[in-house]
From TrEMBL:
The keyword Membrane is annotated on this UniProt entry: no
Stored Pfam families: Ribosomal_S17 (PF00366)
Name recorded for this polypeptide: Small ribosomal subunit protein uS17
GO cellular component: ribosome
Family statement: Belongs to the universal ribosomal protein uS17 family.
Signal peptide: none
Subunit structure, interactors included: Part of the 30S ribosomal subunit.
Organism superkingdom: Bacteria
Protein keywords: Lipoprotein, Ribonucleoprotein, Ribosomal protein, RNA-binding, rRNA-binding
CDD domains: Ribosomal_uS17 (cd00364)
InterPro entries linked to this entry: NA-bd_OB-fold (IPR012340), Ribosomal_uS17 (IPR000266), Ribosomal_uS17_bact/chlr (IPR019984)
Length: 77
């Protein structure tokens, strides 16, 4: 099964080797038929501490690294 890859914005890089990424999804409301935006925050592993607040990054699913970290930063090509 392929690993999921999500794109989002870094909202925190305070922790060592960890970034918090806000991923936003858009969908049409089933009754109101308006576009609704929902966001969720994920903690991702950043081994080299390269991501900074405001960066747009991609994160990939991985095996659990800690209690809250199940995603890793995808190195930009």
């Amino acid at each position: 099964m392929p690993k999921r890859v999500l794109q989002g914005t870094v909202v925190s890089d305070t922790n060592e080797k960890t970034v918090v990424v806000r991923v936003e999804r858009r969908f049409t409301h089933p009754v109101m038929k308006k576009t609704v935006r929902r966001s969720k925050k994920y903690q991702a592993h950043d081994e080299a501490n390269i991501a900074k607040v405001g960066d747009i990054v991609q994160i990939e699913e991985c095996a659990p690294i800690s209690r809250n970290k199940r995603w890793t930063l995808v190195p930009s090509a």
